[in-house]
Every structure is written in structure tokens, then in C-alpha cells.
Amino acid sequence: MDETLKGKTVVVTGASSGIGRATARLLAQEGCKVVLAARGADKLKALAKEIGPSALAIPTDVAVPEEVNRMVLQATKHFGGIDALLANAGIFIPGDFSRGNPDDWSRTLAVNVDGVFRCIYAVLPGMKARGTGDIIVTTSISGLIDIQTEPVYSASKHAVQGFVHTLRRQVAASGIRVGAISPGIVLNEIWGITDEAEIARRVEDHSGIRSEDVARSILFMLSQPRHVTIRDLVILPQNQDI
Q1: CB-CB neighbours of 233 under 10 Å
Q2: Which of 153, 164, 178, 237 is catalytic?
Q3: Is 121 a catalytic residue?
Q4: Which of 106, 208, 235, 237 is least buried, going by the fewest C-beta atoms within 10 A?
Q5: For residue 192, what pLDDT is reported?
Q6: Taking the complete model, does pTM exceed 0.85, yes or no?
Q7: Topology adopted by domain 9-235
């Protein structure tokens, strides 16, 4: 157990599946109190039951401002403050732009961009008041390079990547660290991959990574001494050479 994290309260958005769920489990094992936020109430409830009393499930749509504010207020009241935020909730939309649905684009930007902004905006006052805090945003390799097959998703992640690197410089003097984790192909629900046999096969041939691999990297970022900021961490399957 990492003593630097023990007892810390971490909000995890997108906690009902994939990277969020894996990270919440791992942080709880490390002695953290975890706030589980996502739209899927039943999945959140099941995960909170699995983790135990150190978990608080708050169904939240990060694209709805009132729900974000309510989640942060409830989490602060329950645990007494928020030490870290993993802004992880996201939507993945690939495909030919000319055949896309503008309503889907709007929803993607509302979750992937505006949802990140609003969650961070909601936790910043408390972190500034205490003079410490951690914010990690799940971006993507798509936020670092232009991927032809996913123009809207890539645009959303480029936007968040730029935001992370400018915000970090604004809040550094307040003792708040801000970093981005940028995964490649993660074998989970967002990619439509849930069959354990397929996951095992693709891990074996180094064409994908597990959500748990990303969770360990997030733990690494959070557990650094306070004078260290990991501003970017890119994690790829060994055979994903882009």
C-alpha cells in the first residue's frame, strides 16, 4: 500500500467501466477513498458494493452542469474534501465525417471537452483553498497525433490536451499538479471489446493493453513526491507503432 495515497479522496469519472473502474479498484486497494461518478447507476452501485465503505457512488452525467456540481458537493460533504480528480469520462466516435451525425458530435464534445472543463472547475476551489491537489485527465494518443479514422474524437482529445498544458501553468503556484495520460488501444468497452478470450489474445500478441495497465500508470502519476509533476504519460501496446 502506498502511504502517500492512503486516506486521500479521489473522484473518478467514467467509473462504471474500463479505465475508470480499473483505476477506482486499484486506488481503493492503495487505501484511497474513491468517489465513483458515471451515468450507469446500477454498475456504480455494484462497484461500490464490491469496493466497500471507502467508495461512494454518485450517478453523474458530466455533460450536465447541475449534476457535476451536485456530485462534487456531495463528495466533499461525505469525505470532507477532494484530493484528486481523474477526469476520465469519455465517448469514442470513429468513422467517416461526411457520414456522421452532428448530434453525436455535439454529445462527444459535451462529454469529452466540456465535461472535463466542468469537473475540473468544480474541484479547483477546494484544492486551491488547501494548497494542494492532483488532476489527471484521460486524453488519448488521438490527442497527440491526427488519426484519420476518427476526426471528431481526435479533435476533442486535441482540445483537452491543449487545455491540460495551459491549466497546469495557471495552477502550479497553488500546489496543484495537472497531467494527462494518453493511452493507445485499450481493450475495454469503449472499443467494444469485452470478451476475455479476445482480450487475452490481443494482450498476448501485443496489439492492445488492459484497462488495468492504464490504472497502474495513473497510480504511478499520483504517487510521485509533491515536487514531481508527470505532465504527460503515453501508454501504448508494444505493437502499436504510430
Answers
A1: 17
A2: 153
A3: no
A4: 106
A5: 81
A6: yes
A7: Rossmann fold (3.40.50)
